[in-house]
Amino acid sequence: MTRSKLREQMFRLCFSIDFHATEEFEAQADLYLEENDFFRNKEKEYIKKRTLDMLSRLGEIDQKINENSKGWDIKRLGKAELTILRIAVYEIMFDEDIPNKVAINEAVELSKTYCNEKAASFVNGILGKIG
């Protein structure tokens, strides 16, 4: 599976973060990964490891998003946009294997798929300030 596809699966998994108690998330992640049997074990481990690492840094990631989204409180962002931003900011701040431009471009593409053109521009603007 390509990194883009893995990132999309991570998005689908992370989208549920705000709908479940944090302490339930690991069990939710295991369930999601087991129900989707098209993942190889290596891919499951990759997605789970990155997702849990991102979750452990959520305060720092959300702070960075808030600092760079002038006039927008993080609580007012759509859940899909917020999830996409969180993944991209995580990649920009903590994943040296992914160039910032790639993280930003992938986030914009996810926004076009799961949100709308305005959201894609918004995501691009915020991430452009960060990365």
Please give a structural write-up.
The protein has helices spanning 3-14, 25-35, 41-56, 58-68, 79-94, 100-114, 117-130. The protein is mainly alpha-helical and 131 residues long. It has one domain (3-130): N-utilizing Substance Protein B Homolog, Chain A, CATH 1.10.940. α1 (3-14) packs across α3. The radius of gyration is 14 Å and the shape is globular. The mean pLDDT is 91.
Gist?
InterPro entries: NusB-like_sf (IPR035926), NusB_fam (IPR011605), NusB_RsmB_TIM44 (IPR006027). This is Transcription antitermination protein NusB. The protein contains seven helices and no strands.
Q: Which features does this protein show?
A:
single chain; 131 residues; mainly alpha; N-utilizing Substance Protein B Homolog, Chain A; 0% strand; globular; transcription regulation; NusB-like_sf; RNA binding; RNA-binding; Transcription antitermination protein NusB
Measured distance between first and last alpha carbons = 26 Å
Main β-sheet: number of strands, strand sense, barrel status?
Answer: none
CATH architecture: Orthogonal Bundle
Shape: globular
Number of domains: 1
Structural class assignment: mainly alpha
